[in-house]
Amino acid sequence: MSSDLFKFKFTKPTSGDIESNSSTGREFEQVMTDETFVNFRDVIYKLCGIYYTESKKYLLEGRIAKRLIACKIQTFLEYIKYIKSFSGKEELYNLFEAITINETYFYRAQFQFDALENIIIPEIIQNKAGFQRPIFRIWSAASSTGEEAYTIALMILERIGKKYPNFNFQILASDINNAVLENAKAGVYKEYAIRNVPPDVLNRYFKKGNNTYTLTDEVRRMVKFMNINLYDQATMRTIVGCDVILCCNVLIYFDIPSKQKVITHLYDSLNKGGYLFIGYSESLHGISKAFKLVHFPKAMVYKKE
Ligand SMILES: C[S@@+](CC[C@H](N)C(=O)[O-])C[C@H]1O[C@@H](n2cnc3c(N)ncnc32)[C@H](O)[C@@H]1O
């Protein structure tokens, strides 16, 4: 057993180091040693590719400390053993909920959506001319609470579906975090998330409640949600035949080898002629040469040729 553990069990706690749980009388470790941080960083990295740098140590410490309390586990080391054990498998989902950052909102990347609607969708549809029952598959691959996927559903309902009535548009949205997926399925949003939604679209497709905006069933039915870990090779291999993949604002949490691994999987999931969107602040420079970088007005998108 490491000496960090003894430090917390046998020394008098200073305020902020240990939180007492009055119902059990147990005490929870609150300060993560550098050694334990490295241990966590490596475990998290192996599980999902997210790489916590030294500068994020306190963020990780605070988030995992809450899981210690929830699980009534006293020390960080015990918690690591727990998540590595068979009985801790379910806790992995809670860990992912605790460590991921889920910022998103409707119409977040307007120029990308413009390129998708005006150029990419018509191009791919033209390439499928003559197909008997043509399917157009779109995958929002780190969807968080679903705003990106639903923005595309709204685009299809508003205009694209009417232009191409014989096409079956399928939208898959996935994330590693079950809590955000449940919120996404419910389709209930606050002012912050809908602030860029055009007023007429808001009126037509959202029911206004007390400080909430709930998507109509018509929109919610268009998106299928799944828990998919982008780092899980076996599951990733099952997602194929996509025409467009959006994997936005998640690569920033990965290091180069995990970006390479994820991008290789996404490449395989795309159809020839399909497109991959990543976040504005992200790039595949030094990550992959497999794609062709295509420039659209104020947006760059990666094409599988
Ligand atoms: C900042 S949000 C991006 C949401 C949306 N794509 C956007 O651009 O607005 C990043 C999401 O990536 C998810 N994520 C992080 N690591 C993941 C992984 N290994 N597999 C799947 N999703 C992951 C997080 O749970 C989080 O919801």
In short:
With 305 residues, this protein is an alpha/beta fold. It is built from 13 helices and twelve strands. It has two domains: 3-99, Chemotaxis Receptor Methyltransferase Cher, domain 1; 110-303, Vaccinia Virus protein VP39 (Rossmann fold).
What does this molecule look like?
- Helix 13 (256-269) links the parallel strand 9 (242-247) and strand 10 (270-278).
- Helix 3 packs antiparallel against helix 5.
- Mean pLDDT is 92; it is low at 1-18.
- This protein has two domains: 3-99, Chemotaxis Receptor Methyltransferase Cher, domain 1 (Orthogonal Bundle), CATH 1.10.155.10; 110-303, Rossmann fold.
- It is α/β, with parallel strands linked by helices.
- The termini are far apart.
- It has helices spanning 3-10, 34-48, 57-71, 76-84, 91-99, 110-127, 147-163, 178-186, 191-194, 199-205, 217-220, 233-236, 256-269, and strands spanning 18-21, 26-29, 135-140, 168-175, 188-189, 206-208, 213-215, 223-227, 242-247, 270-278, 292-296, 299-303.
**Count of runs of 4 or more consecutive helical residues:** 13
CATH class of the largest domain: Alpha Beta
Query: Topology as H/E string?
Result: HEEHHHHHEHEHEHHEEHEHEHEEE
Under CATH, the homologous superfamily of the largest domain reads: Vaccinia Virus protein VP39
* Cα shape: globular
Output the radius of gyration: 22 Å
Largest sheet: 7 strands, mixed
- CATH fold naming of the largest domain: Rossmann fold
Query: What count of domains describes the coordinates?
Result: 2
Q: Residue-averaged pLDDT, rounded?
A: 92
How would you write the strand order of the largest sheet? 8-4-3-9-10-12-11
What structural category arises from helix and sheet content? alpha/beta
Number of strands: 12
Which ligands appear in the coordinates?
S-adenosylmethionine
Distance between the termini: 54 Å
- Beta-strand level of the residues, as a percent range? 15-25%
